[in-house]
Amino acid sequence: MTESEIYVRKLAEFKSDEKPEVVLLLADDVDLVRIAVAWTNTATCPAGKLTRPPKEDNANGWWNWLWENTTYSRQELMEKAHQPYQGFDRKLKALIGNRILYPDGTINSFAQRYLRERVLKLFQTKSPTSRKKPARVR
Length: 138
Known about the structure:
By secondary structure, the chain is mainly alpha-helical. Helix content is 51%, strand content 4%. Helix 1 packs across helix 4 (59-68) and helix 3 (30-39) crosses helix 5 (74-81). It is globular and about 80 Å long.
């Protein structure tokens, strides 16, 4: 199996083992939300020449290997997230370390669902039955 095939397979394994609790990190931090949203609009791809896979078969080793072999523009991500340089790396590491961001430009499906629900609540309108009818003029 080639390194590229391993990359795709390992990424799929992480996506199939998602944890819903990571959403709690996003719940109270606007900056993390902005970075997560911007991540989905930032171009990513596996590195041109992938490094050798880790010798030890553990999740952290594989996760680090995936990220070491992913290319993206940090500057583009900062600009899209409207984030200053100071503190950006710490926030990005928190999102990566908690497996909210995936190397392929997607995010944890629970986090994505949470963000979509937040957006829907912002634009939610009252249902037709809950609206008051205007008074009739005679």
